Amino acid sequence: MISRFDIDEALLMAKPERQHKFVLLFCRRGYLSIEIDQQHYSLGANQFLTITPKQFYRFLDTAGEGVVVEFTYDFFCKDDKSIELIYHNGLFCHFALNEIINIPNESVLKNVEFHLAQLHHELDAQQFEYEASLHAIVKLLLIEVSRCKIVQQQRPLYKPDAVFLHFLKIVRDTFSKRLTVKEYAAQMNITEQKLNELTKKNTGETTQQLINDLIVLEAKRLLNYEDMNVKQVALQLGFDDPHYFSRFFKKQTASRAKDHLRTLITK
């Protein structure tokens, strides 16, 4: 459901593990080094980093003091507003775009420490309606962290809606079924056109391209971390023919590399 614990050497890991909860890391003093989906991050004093379910991670160095807050989707995402808060501004991100978030001033730091202390108290005491209280505290903490991210970023506020986020969760949970856009739309009780409109609005891509992006991201994780060969990865992702999967993977990654190069050239 939810837990809060201090960061120490016991968290150091020999190899990456898959995370199944939402994780908020906070570094108080010193520094923390962590690998997430093959990217290395170093947190300094008064910095946050988030980990989204399905990502692979491991602590590389804990030469500092900090706090980890973990919670499940079912614990926090009880309504549309809570679902949207999780992903507003890419606070938690489906696309492996983790970002270090700075606390801008002493006033915000005091608020963060207050919420973390409240969380510790509620988890320890477990008094009447403590789960409702925990949910409220986590919500306030995430709002505070989101505000920190808004202060430091140089781009428009990103506000995805709950229907689109529900779609992303279904895709991530059903890779092996290889559903079509039409089938995803039917599961959500909306039209295929509506789903395409939602995807275009939130990502600028077609629904099929977004599905392909998520499949490729999952394939990379399985190949890098699960000690699986191409045939095993293909089967797990719903591809009966590993040769077709290989062609699909190469085509998608090549296309993305070209898009990235085009973006760099036009900047």
TrEMBL record:
It comes from the Bacteria. InterPro entries: Homeodomain-like_sf (IPR009057), HTH-like (IPR037923), HTH_AraC (IPR018060). GO terms for molecular function: DNA-binding transcription factor activity; sequence-specific DNA binding. Keywords: DNA-binding, Transcription, Transcription regulation. Signal peptide: none annotated. Residues 165-263 form the HTH araC/xylS-type domain. Pfam families: HTH_18. PROSITE patterns: HTH_ARAC_FAMILY_2. PANTHER family: ARAC-FAMILY TRANSCRIPTIONAL REGULATOR, TRANSCRIPTIONAL REGULATORY PROTEIN. This is AraC family transcriptional regulator. It comes from Pseudochryseolinea flava.
